[in-house]
Here is the input.
Amino acid sequence: MVVEIDEQSGFCFGVHNAVKIAEEALNRSEKVYSLGPIVHNDMEMERLSALGLVSVTYEEFSKLKNCKVLIRAHGEPPETYRIAEHNKITIIEATCPIVKKLQSRIRETHSKSCKSKGQIVIFGKSGHAEVIGLLGHTDGEGILVSEPDDLKKIDMTRPVFLFSQTTMSIKDYNSIADLIRFNMRECGAADPEKLLRVHNTICGQVSNREPHLKAFAKEHDVIIFVSGRESSNGKMLYEVCKSVNSHTYFVSSTDEIDSRWFEGKRSAGVCGATSTPKWLIEKIRDIIREI
Here is the structure.
């Protein structure tokens, strides 16, 4: 049986950069805390924990003083930085540059939109670290939309500035934008384009992986998708593979591989999320080859 790795799978730039910054700090023998898991992958977190990285909750963070805390790729709201300054915490900045730019765009748009009674609407997962950070730049006035039913939170007679969490599906984002336009027409808007401004804020590395993974999944008899269970991006890209190849299986570790998946199969493809380390994808490939 042929076993092939998708070479485009593995850490995106933002996660790769955050892990590199963490490793460099740990290599200097520094005591480093991470505000929340640096990456949504238990296997990678175990590796970094062995190097000395300590993940803390927000409650634990608020009690820390005179130490170093890494801000992960997801980014943080302004309040986090205010707490750090008050507690004399040195911030190790590892926010993804794309997320950092998005935070700035939302902050600037919110400031300008106040004059036109505009609404900042963010399409994303409720409770996701990146979304919490983005909403923090709206002075608590941002509207979170995760599904069509949430659109009732929006006043369709007022301007809407729509943004998306960087790791969402571009197809779902476009669908939400279309629904807002439809609802605006229902509320009497002659030209919804004048009321709705859609910002293209989904990461290119994420959106480009969707068509690529569809093609990759079609090329193989069976697909093993490797990702942490908590990864929003992982859940989305797994569904992309599953939509074109019913023999797609989600695994988080080597222990979850079932040899029966490969019976009668001639080829297997191994791929993963933007939060999946390449070393884990390669390890899964090697085990499948042994099978």
Observations:
- The chain has three domains: 2-9+209-290, 13-96, 98-165+168-201.
- The first strand starts at residue 2 and ends at 5.
- The first helix runs from residue 13 to 27.
